[in-house]
Amino acid sequence: MTAPSVPVLPGRLGRALGLTLPLLQAGMGGIAGPRLCAEVSRAGAGGVLALYREPPAQVSRLVTATARTTTRPFGVNLIPEVAGPATARAQLDAALDSLPGHAFVTFYGLPDPDLLTTSAGAGHPTVVQVGTEATAERALERGATIVVLQGSEAGGHLLGDLPALPLLRAVRKRHPDAVLAVAGAVATGADLAHAIAEGADGAMAGTVFAATHESEAHPLFRRRIVAAAATDTVVTTRYDIGWPHRPHRVLRNALTDSEQRLPARFVATVTTADGRRLPVPRYSATAPSVRAEGRVEDMAMYCGRSCERVTAVEPVAALLARFRTEYALAVRDARGMTAHA
């Protein structure tokens, strides 16, 4: 694939975060560790380190490990609705103590105003992922630097039920000057180009990064993403232990397809960074990482509908080089169609 001379411009999202590619990697719990985050950032996109349920001391270690391996901007992702207010505050404080000055902070879901204020007060841009027009409005009112509009096509836990582009159009109509990105159905440079053509300033992607070499996803998880079609994903509420009341899109398996809910017995174990082996019950929200053992096939393999455009397990550098080429080709083709219209 030969790249035409149409560079990917960083745009407002890239300029706000110091990126050369207006693409964020989702901060997937258990999957987005220092290696993935750093490699994405080295390639010019926005790598994001998952903090999920990490204790504050581990947050500091993870941030420091990431900062050692990249001089490029990267982010940390907090999920207050899972961690809880006190832990989310402690995680943020620990992260801010270790983050380099060019880093940014992302939140899954609308955080309490004080978390946004603290992040901004420390000099870090803030990114808030939402799934409805109303929560986008509130995020912008609270001063979010960038709002990510998650569509229902996305993998993982879902914040709304609208597809990404209709949600983008609704928010953009009310906020023409806001810096907006979309999440859901972005796995190629052509997808990114299409989102930008529709009015986005960039995108956030998860599924395609989960399938990379640097991801901490279990090898079976990666292979299943590559093999899957969009129809192999399903929105369910089955994996609710540890994260209740939030629908999620996963790869279908025997548990999602069964009408019966089985007893929540332990089906796997996950080894923590400090060497502890924790049991994983059936229907746990825990994603299968490289540290998982047991019936990995029964665990929650979060996956978006874009999986059908993920064709290989490959290094991040190769993936993002191809993103740039695909973006350039898509823009060139669109210009050609316009010229001949």
From TrEMBL:
Domain of life: Bacteria
Keyword Kinase appears in the UniProt entry: no
Tagged with keyword Flavoprotein: yes
Pfam family, one: NMO
Keywords: Dioxygenase, Flavoprotein, FMN, Oxidoreductase
Classification via Gene3D superfamilies: Aldolase class I
One term of GO molecular function: dioxygenase activity
Protein name, per record: 2-nitropropane dioxygenase NPD
Organism expressing this protein natively: Candidatus Protofrankia datiscae
